[in-house]
Amino acid sequence: MPRPKSPVRLEWVDPAVCSLDYRLKIIGRLPFFRHLSPESIAEINRLFEDRDAAAEGAIYFEGDPASHLYLVAMGKVKLMRNAASGREVLLDILRGGEYFGNLSTLGGQGYSETAIAQTDCCILQISAENFEKILNRHPDVTMKVLKAVGERLEQSQEVVKQLSVYTADQRIAATLVRLTKKWGEQRQEGVLIELPFSRHDLAAMTGTTVETVSRVMSRFSGEGLISTGRKWVSINDLGGLEAISKEGTVN
Amino acid sequence: MPRPKSPVRLEWVDPAVCSLDYRLKIIGRLPFFRHLSPESIAEINRLFEDRDAAAEGAIYFEGDPASHLYLVAMGKVKLMRNAASGREVLLDILRGGEYFGNLSTLGGQGYSETAIAQTDCCILQISAENFEKILNRHPDVTMKVLKAVGERLEQSQEVVKQLSVYTADQRIAATLVRLTKKWGEQRQEGVLIELPFSRHDLAAMTGTTVETVSRVMSRFSGEGLISTGRKWVSINDLGGLEAISKEGTVN
DNA sequence: CGACTTTTTGAGTCTAGTCAAAACATGTGG
DNA sequence: CCACATGTTTTGACTAGACTCAAAAAGTCG
Fold it and tell me: Is residue B73 part of a domain?
């Protein structure tokens, strides 16, 4: 079987993208603020600072004092936790418009996870005090934030369930389904997940090892469910993967 | 070694406890509302309905349309998710003052977990619309709620990490530590966890089986770390358990 | 004192982890 | 454009931790 060449095209973030005038546009499109008047957005904009992050660079580490809340303006950010054993856990991958830097510990203890730029990123940061100011002035924003946190909690609980009772096959299938729904891009022959994301990342998301992920994905590939290569996956049969994640087998 | 008799004393909830006049007191003590004026609390009180739940009874099921938010007034409530395999996952055990019934899906999809009374309970419920009214009128309450949800998210992410990289020994030790910090009561010879909570519950919290929990706890007991019996555990060496949860061994 | 539930113990099996090495991609510099 | 260095993925052999099934033991309650 001829293996397809990598369909991944790298995206570049021009530093100029984070320039002052561009920020208004980005902030105005964020889910939290989209509904606000231009004046409010301009006012909010003044409370944010921008910050670039090169791919693979850390934005903050687990345990760092939690001073700011962050919004992804452009690029992809991954949230991780490190275990004493050295193994790492990938909690989530975020894209433009999503927040990170826990609200609960803001101003108090340290961050509970490490944030790393998966691609070149443009990040907006705001201090805890200023963020509270926005929330106090805009109750509707607060409700949106509350919903966002709640959704993330539900998602996390779903992962807990998967880790508790699913086999490695099921966890990997379920994770591919989840990634497809969030990150999939329609292509000629299926849905492409282009993050870039390696076997190592997938192992860290599913609580398995690189070798297990490789073996399982080879099998899925042999069954025609997916096509895969270095740092990308294309989903050919989403229904089949969903069936595996729920029942444990293809048929 | 002589096994101690069960130190568990059952608590009874008098239905009268949920009477109208008693509610004011309870609501006024809840973390979300404690700081408000008596008038505000009286006003908020009118928006809540009360509801009893007998031990083992369900308050709602996963998938039920999410119409209300709940507060535990008295008793203990457990939140579970069920897998297709029939195995169940215990997400959290709540006590007086804690909320449940996800805020994110309120008014939208169904609940993402099942809520079951672990003991006889007194529950306060409020409709989505009325809860939003409170939040809009009291921004400081909203901030407290936001913090509470954020803390629960962090906790859930910690469980994800534990399930991902810890051995069964470590997960069980870590869970005992967590339960002790939340539920432990000082006694002559250690800290008692009196929920009531069985091997089955502990297995559902740690993603293991009843047999594994029993074997591991027997070993912990033999090493003098804990004493245990039917539906209760007493922690004799919290530091030892913490060491196991982090390093994997006692020394 | 039974009937029932919960917990413990045992034996066998299997999933997934570990260690090791080869195959494959990708990018670099000559 | 090729050869090499580096990082990623695949494959293989072995091992061990945890699950399953089964049955006995210990508590609890009417």
Answer: yes
Strand boundaries in B4-120, DSSP class E: 49-53, 58-60, 68-74, 77-82, 88-94, 99-100, 114-117
Whether residue A201 is found in the same domain as residue A83: no
Split into its structural domains, chain B has a count of 2
* Claim: this prediction has a pTM higher than 0.90: yes
pLDDT at A55: 87
pLDDT in tens, B204-220: 999 999 999 999 999 99
CA-to-C1' span, A49 to D9 (A):
40
Tell me what pLDDT residue B4 has: 46
Contact state of A166 with B83 under an 8 Å Cβ cutoff: yes
Q: Which residue is nearest to nucleotide C16 (CA to C1')?
A: A212
Of B102, B139, B124, whose CA–CA distance to B46 is shortest? B124
Q: Do A174 and A128 share a structural domain? A: no
Contacts of A158 in chain B (CB under 8 A): 81, 112
Return d(Cα A155, Cα A78) in angstroms, integer: 15
Q: Express each pLDDT in A175-207 by its tens digit.
A: 999 999 999 888 877 888 888 889 999 999 999
| Test mutation, A137, A143, A165, A166, chain B, max B CBs within 10 A | A165
Say whether both B39 and B92 belong to one domain: yes
Q: Is residue A15 part of a domain?
A: no
- C1' nearest to CA of B198: which nucleotide? C6
Question: Are both B175 and B108 inside the same structural domain?
Answer: no
